[in-house]
């Protein structure tokens, strides 16, 4: 029995060998493909290539390394230069295919040239001819796809940055700037009150202190927003305390925060998600609840983290409002860290947001 491509020679009705027609057809088909294709034997030696493979080798001055008769396996295993690690990894997996340990594999890799940036998808699959194993190696240029994906990521990231800047701008305008204007207005009235109504003047001074405290807290939170890495490094309990001071100091809402257990070293994504969920829940209370009391509880014990944000506000109908006012984003953030989030509310009965996160190991560290 022969090697690769061996076919029983069957004569056609008019005496023309089928093998000759099939061989010519297969060769033409392989040469018409955009992928670079090579056939290697059990030892990893290249025994056939298509025109695309040969053209790529010529264009990149690699003919002596990847042409027929060259041991492609050893060329990969002995890779040198800046792509050496990727080349050796490819060689190891090619060797596993040729030894029958795996049937196939694929690998995306960069292969940049001085004149362009390029990425390829390599695929290797094996087949048997009798008891002899061979492998088909293909390299497909996927540069357009990768560059399109990178452009999409960059565009999405830029849009996210733009939206974040707009959000911070709104908070500066709606929060701190208005607070500072209030402080300035009160400061202008106090000198006149000192001569006519000292009691009222003291009340206004106390009001100024409260407004200033709130403005300072808001500014601290905005500075945190500008540096997400600082959020990750700040204890969750401290972040929640600052959120409450910032959100409630100007609203006439009584806020209460309780914390039990030792806050663990949460994974960064969990830490950030819990912070954002708390922030969204508190913002909803301030903007929509008309509440006079707000309670936040953070419990870190019994192998789980529990967060509760509740108010005594007007509440809402669960059948009509759960997809609005930020609740969708809270659900998405909770799902992203595999946490359980429940929202309970009713008209005239306030709102409760409950989050439970259990680490995969079942233990808070």
Would you count the extended β strands for me? Answer: 10
Report the portion of residues in β strands: 15-25%
Named CATH architecture of the largest domain: 2-Layer Sandwich
Mean pLDDT: 80
CATH class of the largest domain: Alpha Beta
Strand and helix layout:
Layout: H1 18-32, E1 36-40, E2 46-49, H2 51-59, H3 63-66, H4 72-77, H5 84-98, E3 104-110, E4 119-129, E5 132-141, H6 143-196, H7 198-226, H8 228-233, H9 236-248, E6 254-261, H10 268-289, E7 293-301, E8 304-311, H11 318-321, H12 327-336, E9 340-345, E10 351-357
Parallel strand pairs: 6-7
Antiparallel strand pairs: 1-2, 1-5, 3-4, 4-5, 7-8, 8-10, 9-10
Helix pairs in contact: 6-7, 7-9, 9-10, 10-12
């Amino acid at each position: 029995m022969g090697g690769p491509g061996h076919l029983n020679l069957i004569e056609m009705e008019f005496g023309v060998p089928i093998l000759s027609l099939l061989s010519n057809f297969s060769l033409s088909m392989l040469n018409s493909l955009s992928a670079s294709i090579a056939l290697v034997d059990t030892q990893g030696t290249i025994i056939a290539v298509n025109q695309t493979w040969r053209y790529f080798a010529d264009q990149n001055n690699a003919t002596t390394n990847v042409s027929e008769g060259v041991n492609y396996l050893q060329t990969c295993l002995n890779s040198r230069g800046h792509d050496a690690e990727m080349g050796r990894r490819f060689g190891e997996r090619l060797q596993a295919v040729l030894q029958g340990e795996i049937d196939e594999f694929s690998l995306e890799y960069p292969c940049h040239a001085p004149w362009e940036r390029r990425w390829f998808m390599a695929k290797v699959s094996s087949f048997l001819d009798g008891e002899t194993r061979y492998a088909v190696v293909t390299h497909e240029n996927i540069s357009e796809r990768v560059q399109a994906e990178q452009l999409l990521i960059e565009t999405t990231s830029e849009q996210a940055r733009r939206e974040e800047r707009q959000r911070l701008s709104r908070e500066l305008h709606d929060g701190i700037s208005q607070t500072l204007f209030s402080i300035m207005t009160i400061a202008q009235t106090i000198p006149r009150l000192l001569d006519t109504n000292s009691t009222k003047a003291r009340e206004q001074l106390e009001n100024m202190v409260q407004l200033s405290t709130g403005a300072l807290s808001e500014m601290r939170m905005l500075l945190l927003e500008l540096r997400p890495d600082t959020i990750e490094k700040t204890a969750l309990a401290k972040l929640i305390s600052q959120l409450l001071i910032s959100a409630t100091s100007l609203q006439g809402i009584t806020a209460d925060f309780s914390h039990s257990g030792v806050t663990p070293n949460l994974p960064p994504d969990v830490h950030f998600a819990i912070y954002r969920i708390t922030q969204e829940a508190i913002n909803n209370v301030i903007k929509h609840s008309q509440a006079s009391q707000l309670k936040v509880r953070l419990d870190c014990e019994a192998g789980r983290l529990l967060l509760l944000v509740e108010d005594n506000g007007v509440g809402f109908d669960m059948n009509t409002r759960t997809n609005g006012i930020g609740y969708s984003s809270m659900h998405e953030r909770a799902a992203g860290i595999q946490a359980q989030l429940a929202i309970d509310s009713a008209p005239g009965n306030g709102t409760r947001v409950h989050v439970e996160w259990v680490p995969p190991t079942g233990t808070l560290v």
